[in-house]
Structures are given as structure tokens and as C-alpha cells.
Design goal:
With 264 residues, this protein is α/β, with parallel strands linked by helices. The protein has helices at 3-17, 26-40, 45-54, 56-66, 77-95, 115-127, 142-149, 164-170, 217-230, and strands at 104-109, 133-139, 187-191, 203-208, 231-239, 253-255, 260-263.
Length: 264
Amino acid sequence: MEPEVYTQVKTSIKRKLGIDLTNYKDEQMKRRLDSWLVRARVENWNDYFTLCTEDATELERFRNYLTINVTEFFRDPNRWSMLSHDIIPYLIKNVADSHSVGGLKLWSAGCSIGTEPYTMAIMMGEEFQNQKYSLLATDLDRGALLKARNRGPYSSDDVRNLSAAQKQKYITPKAPFHVNDGLQRNIRFQEQDLFADRFDTGFDLIVCRNVVIYFTAEAKDVLYAKFTAALRPGGVLFLGGTEIISGPIKFGLQSFGISFYKKL
């Protein structure tokens, strides 16, 4: 895609959808857009945006495509094990407000189709049965949020990291799978733009895994600063395995193990 075409496409997307692609890595997004135009079987972007103007369903399909959803239950099991065995006990003992009615305040930022917040609910139910908590789960993709709210359906690949006992307890017996409604009890799903919208504050834990890898270095810095402000002192930010903050001290964070950063 030529630079001038990409500039025009970004302008049209921001005007029609309110999504600012300047926060995303250019070459990665160009490839994604080129692929979509081929899939849509439209010759050029002017014709495609005309189609979107005439067809609200197509516009919504395009909106959902622009947000990247690659996810599964307990993705990177070793990191979830560390969260369960080390991070949550630390938060309960040293950070969480013991007088808070809601208990631990958790946030799954960029929750996609819901596998991450439901993973958190499974973990809390199995390892911390007596611990109260609230869990905010947010994403920009309305289609993904609808699937999350509907508790699925999920594929065999989505649930492959669940143990046989977990599958029996938490999901329906046959594919396509849905999680049991009890897992949703402490979760509040909400549409959110990580860059445009204000964040709530006082979180003990923010989980934002495999999201910032798609953003520019400048956009990442903006998000890390916002996440730090949203954490309570001593709170923890949980990132994806390849998402490493260079010089976390400038954001008021310090490394707290692989993928984890603690607010100073």
C-alpha cells in the first residue's frame, strides 16, 4: 500500500469508526488492510468505503477486523502459574485493601473474546475460593465483546490448555464450547478504547497480554503511563511473554518477574 493511500485510509477509518491507526505499527497494519480488501473483493478503498456507507453490517465487520484477536484459555501456562502461586498471594497480603467490600480489583484490558477474563475467573475460583474480587474486562471490538458476554462459542483450540477436570467443570461437553454462566458472576464487560478513554483507578492487577505488541513505541509509552496511573501503589501489570518494558522506572514501575511489573 502506497503511503498516500494509507494516509487516506487512516483518515477515513478515524472519521467513520473513531479508530486511530496512528497508534499501530504501519507495515503490520498495511498488510492487514491489504488482506481485508482482497477478502472483500473490492478493487480500491474508495469503492470499499462507499460500500461501508451503504451497508452498516459491512462497516461493523470491518471495525471488528481491525482489532486483532488471537487468544486462548491459559495462554502461556507458566505465566498463569506464576500469577496464581506468587502474584495474587502477594497482592492479597501486601496491596489489596482488606476493608474493601469488593475485594481484589482486577482488569483484563483488551479482553478479546473473553478467554482471558474467564481464565482469571477459573483461577480465582480454584485457588482463592474465599477471596472476593471484581473483574473489569474491556475491548474495542464489539463482536469480540458480544462473544465474551455470550460465554462463547469457543473452539477446541481455544480450550486446549484446560485440564480434563476444568473442561468438565467449566465448559459445555461438546464443541462449540460455552463456559458456564457462574464464571461470569464477577465479570463486567465494557467497550473501551485504550487510547481515547479514561481509565478507572485503584486496580490491584491489570492484565494486558499480547495487545501492546501491535502498537508503536510512542503509543506503548502512552499506555504504560496510563496503566501505571490506574494501579494502586504496589499493584501489578501483567504483560505478554514478548512484551518487555525498556526502562520501566520512567513509568514508576519495576520488574517483578518475567511478564510482571510492580508499581512503585
